[in-house]
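ok so I'm stuck.
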Amino acid sequence: MPVKFKALPRRNLKDPNQPPKYYAVATGGGKCDIDKLSRIISKNSTVSRADIYAVIIAMVDAINDEISDGNMVYLSKLGSFGIAIKSVGAATPEAVTAATIKKSKINYRPGAEIKTVLNTLQYEKMES
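replied:
not stuck anymore, here's the structure
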């Protein structure tokens, strides 16, 4: 099934007087939640849906624990999860403290197998 997209206008913030240009933006075709994912996996394996669900929940808990300990989590084909932080600039290294950290986020880097999906995507424009 192709990835659906639509054209949305974007203004040039460096030159607001220019007319907007239109860019392709992917639109969500739906969502696959943990329930659906566990059903799909159980249909393609000998493992029960309940067991798959339990493993996914346990994996999320384990990833949270490892991220909280400052570790990167590498899951081979799935990819890796790590933490990134943003802080206020300081004049000296000594002035950089935990209090200067203003934001953190999880960086996800897909594994090679998942990345190859990007090379095979098909696209379909949605009418506005």
